[in-house]
Design brief:
The protein is 70% helix and 0% strand. The protein is built from nine helices and no strands. Helix 2 packs antiparallel against helix 4.
Length: 259
C-alpha cells in the first residue's frame, strides 16, 4: 500500500463533515451557519456532563434544580441552532424514498417549492410570534419556576427569534442555490417562488409601520386600540399589491435582459 492510497485528514473531512461537503458552492450565509453550528455543537458534551452530574447528585440526595434548568437551556439552544445547520448542509433526515431517484433539476424544483411555499412561511410566522414572546419575557423579568433554578429565563427566550431568523437565512440561501439550477435568481423570480413568504412578511411590515405611525402621531390614542383602526383591514391588500408590483418589475427587467 502506497502513501497516496491513505487519505489525509482534509480528504476525510471533505467527504464526512457535513460542513465541508460541497464547500465550493457555499456562500457567506452558508459559512456563517456552519461556523455557528460548529460552535453550538460544543454544547452537547456540556449537556452530557450536566445530565450525568445531576444523576449522581440526585442519587446522593443533593438534587440541584439549576442543573435541571441548564439541561433544557442547553438542549433547546443547541437543537434550534442545529435546525439551521441541517438546512445549510442538507444533512436533515429525508423520508421520501422517491426523491433520491429524481433528476437534479427535479430535485431542485421540489426543494424550491418546499422551502419557498412551506418552510419559509413557517419560519417567518414563528419569528414574528417569538419576537413578541421573547419581549414579553424580557419586560416581565421571567425566571425559573424553582427557587433554586436558573433565573433570567428571558435570556434564553430572547434568543428564539434570533435562532429562527438564522434558520430563515439558511433556508433562503439554500432556496437560491436550488433556484439557480433551473432559473435565474432575479428578485422578480425569487418573489414569485417565495410568494406566501413575501406576502406574509410584507403584511407584517405594513402592520408594524402603520402601528408606529399612528402611535407616534397620535399621543392621545390607547396603544391597545391602535390595531382596531380601520386602516389595518387593508394591510394585507397593501402587501399583496406591493409584492405584485415587485414581481412585475422583476419580470420586465428579466425580459429586457433576455432581449
Amino acid at each position: 500500500m502506497t502513501d497516496q492510497s491513505i487519505p489525509d485528514i482534509e480528504q476525510v473531512l471533505s467527504i464526512s463533515d457535513p460542513g465541508e461537503v460541497d464547500r465550493e458552492t457555499h456562500g457567506r450565509v452558508d459559512r456563517l451557519m456552519i461556523v455557528v453550528g460548529n460552535i453550538a455543537a460544543w454544547l452537547f458534551p456540556i449537556l452530557m456532563i450536566a445530565i450525568v452530574s445531576q444523576v449522581f447528585l440526585r442519587g446522593a440526595g443533593n438534587n440541584q434544580a439549576w442543573l435541571d434548568d441548564a439541561q433544557w437551556w442547553l438542549y433547546g439552544f443547541a437543537m434550534l441552532t442545529a435546525f439551521g445547520y441541517a438546512i445549510t448542509t442538507n444533512s436533515h433526515v429525508r423520508v421520501d424514498i422517491l426523491h433520491q431517484h429524481y433528476s437534479d433539476e427535479r430535485k431542485a424544483r421540489i426543494e424550491v417549492f418546499a422551502i419557498g411555499w412551506l418552510l419559509l412561511p413557517f419560519i417567518a410566522l414563528m419569528t414574528d410570534v417569538l419576537v413578541h414572546y421573547g419581549w414579553q419575557s424580557i419586560i416581565s423579568g421571567e425566571g425559573s419556576s424553582s427557587p433554586n433554578g436558573l433565573h433570567r429565563v428571558y435570556l434564553l427566550k430572547a434568543t428564539l427569534p434570533v435562532l429562527f431568523l438564522l434558520a430563515g437565512l439558511a433556508a433562503w440561501s439554500r432556496f437560491k442555490h436550488n433556484l439557480s439550477k433551473f432559473s435565474d435568481t432575479g428578485f422578480g423570480t425569487q418573489f414569485l417562488w417565495l410568494l406566501p413568504t413575501v406576502i406574509f412578511v410584507g403584511w407584517r411590515l405594513v402592520h408594524y409601520a402603520l402601528y408606529w405611525i399612528i402611535f407616534l402621531t397620535n399621543s392621545e390614542i390607547n396603544p391597545r386600540r391602535i390595531t382596531r383602526e380601520p386602516i389595518f383591514d387593508y394591510a394585507l391588500l397593501m402587501s399583496v399589491g406591493f409584492v405584485a408590483v415587485i414581481i412585475t418589475l422583476g419580470l420586465v427587467v428579466r425580459r429586457r435582459k433576455g432581449a
